[in-house]
């Protein structure tokens, strides 16, 4: 079944359920939830970026979107949630707490609405304290696939600069964490942002994301980015390789695979710079690339001095080096100039190479492969679960007649839930990620493929190239069906594993029937 078919069936089930609820006040929360879900069916999948303060969430958002949509800065704290959506024009809308109506603002004000402590600015303090979240629309093509939700940090103990900001706002660290968790709960998927060096060990990195605020997340809907790997340079000549080693250690730590699908290292500052550097900055990089690589790296190792000191052997003056260092960082400059020496000749080619070398090309592909291909299924599954939670929380407090009305109204949703084979496949995936299936590597690869890990088209689900003929599709489907039919007779598969085998056998029966 395609995503559009599932959306139509869900829309019909929600409409039938809403009509059955009537107009009584006790059931209003369920009616409102169903109405909201019907609207969300056609909206892009919200993906929330969650992590500690200074983990690089905003820089990662900019690298993913190829622009400068989310404010960044070492002295800034993303206190207010920034919800990035696709729109025909760049616009900013401020949503307030309480009954105050949203206000359209000039998009240039976004940086001003990113919190910085300024003593004595009472009017601005009052405004910032009243904000619930910001919506930024932009004609960026990637936002057609995903809404990105850039959340505040999760730290329970803040650094001094952040403490000053929170005192200025009259808010506590717990409130910042609560804001992140509240917005993450509205998202269909999470990107957990770990920053290299912000934790003593891998277990501490994971600790933020196994608490009650993220109890509904798991490998199907949660991917991690290990950011700021560029800071491993110059101690490690290849910081991406060092990042991959750390990511492997995170995934090998206790409990990681029950929370995360995977951890991918990204040099997010380099990825963001790839999309945003100017023609003048490209010219400065070209000039720097005329230097001997060893001499340039020796100067880059001086860190902030590279942006302020006069060096006779550096052909670019400090006033032009400073913006380069802010945008690219030390490793980014070394990488970009190295690519130019190796023959990269124009800005477009440099952008493409830097994006790939930063890990962003691979990371963005992972988002699409892992949960983007299942976006409609994940969204509808979350909507159904939300309605069931509402039903369970309200049922015991309702008068008998309203309780019966509610239980009857949920009937069409239960039918949708029970009759859609894709939801059964999703359950198998959850059991697999929880380590509850006795599947071989071959079994697991087939499970991921047929459930849409690499695409939801027939060829992708069968592991064939896009141009496969109908005969090739049919032959592959029959072969796989035969393999799972044999597994269904194998006594080595028992309990939950046998049920999983039966569901996957049915998956291939359905594929054979559609060819």
From TrEMBL:
Residues 47-194 form the Dynamin N-terminal domain. InterPro entries: Dynamin_N (IPR045063), P-loop_NTPase (IPR027417). SUPFAM superfamilies: P-loop containing nucleoside triphosphate hydrolases (SSF52540). Pfam families: Dynamin_N. It comes from the Bacteria. This is Isoniazid inductible gene protein IniC.
């Amino acid at each position: 079944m395609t995503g559009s078919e599932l959306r139509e069936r869900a829309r019909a089930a929600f409409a039938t359920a809403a009509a059955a609820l009537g107009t009584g006040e006790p059931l209003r929360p369920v009616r409102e939830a169903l109405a909201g879900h019907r609207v969300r069916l056609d909206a892009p999948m919200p993906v929330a970026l969650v992590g500690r303060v200074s983990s690089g969430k905003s820089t990662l958002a900019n690298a993913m979107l190829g622009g400068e949509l989310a404010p960044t800065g070492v002295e800034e704290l993303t206190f207010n949630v920034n919800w990035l959506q696709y729109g025909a024009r760049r616009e900013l809308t401020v949503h307030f707490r309480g009954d105050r109506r949203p206000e359209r603002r000039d998009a240039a004000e976004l940086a001003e609405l990113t919190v910085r402590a300024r003593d004595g600015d009472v009017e601005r303090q009052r405004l910032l304290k009243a904000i619930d979240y910001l919506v930024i629309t932009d004609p960026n093509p990637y936002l057609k696939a995903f809404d990105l939700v850039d959340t505040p940090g999760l730290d329970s103990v803040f650094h001094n600069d952040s403490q000053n900001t929170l005192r200025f706002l009259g808010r506590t660290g717990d409130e910042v964490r609560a804001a992140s968790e509240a917005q993450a709960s509205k998202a269909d998927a999470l990107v957990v942002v770990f920053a290299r060096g912000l934790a003593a060990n891998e277990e501490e990195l994971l600790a933020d994301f196994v608490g009650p605020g993220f109890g509904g997340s798991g490998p199907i809907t949660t991917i991690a980015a290990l950011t700021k790997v560029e800071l491993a340079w110059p101690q490690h000549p290849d910081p991406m390789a060092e990042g991959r080693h750390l990511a492997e250690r995170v995934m090998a730590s206790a409990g990681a695979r029950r929370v995360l699908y995977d951890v991918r290292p990204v040099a997010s500052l380099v990825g963001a710079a790839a999309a945003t550097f100017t023609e003048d900055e490209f010219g400065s990089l070209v000039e720097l690339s005329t230097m001997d690589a060893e001499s340039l790296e020796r100067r880059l190792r001086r860190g902030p001095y590279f942006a302020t000191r006069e060096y006779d052997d550096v052909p670019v003056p400090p006033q032009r080096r400073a913006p380069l260092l802010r945008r690219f960082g030390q490793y980014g400059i070394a990488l970009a100039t190295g690519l130019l020496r190796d023959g990269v000749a124009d800005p477009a080619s440099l952008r493409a190479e830097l994006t790939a070398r930063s890990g962003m090309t691979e990371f963005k592909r992972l988002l699409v492969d892992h949960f983007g291909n299942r976006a409609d299924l994940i969204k509808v599954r979350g909507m159904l679960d939300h309605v069931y939670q509402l039903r369970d929380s309200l049922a015991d407090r309702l008068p008998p007649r309203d309780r019966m009305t509610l239980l009857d109204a949920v009937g069409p949703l239960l039918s949708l839930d029970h009759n859609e084979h894709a939801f059964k496949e999703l359950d198998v995936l959850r059991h697999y990620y929880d380590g509850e299936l006795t599947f071989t590597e071959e079994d697991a690869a087939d499970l991921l493929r047929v459930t849409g890990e690499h695409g939801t088209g027939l060829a992708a689900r069968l592991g064939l190239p896009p141009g496969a003929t109908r005969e090739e599709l049919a032959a592959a489907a029959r072969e796989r069906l035969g393999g799972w039919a044999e597994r269904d007779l194998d006594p080595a598969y028992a309990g939950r594993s046998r049920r999983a085998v039966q569901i996957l056998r049915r998956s291939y029966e359905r594929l054979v029937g559609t060819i």
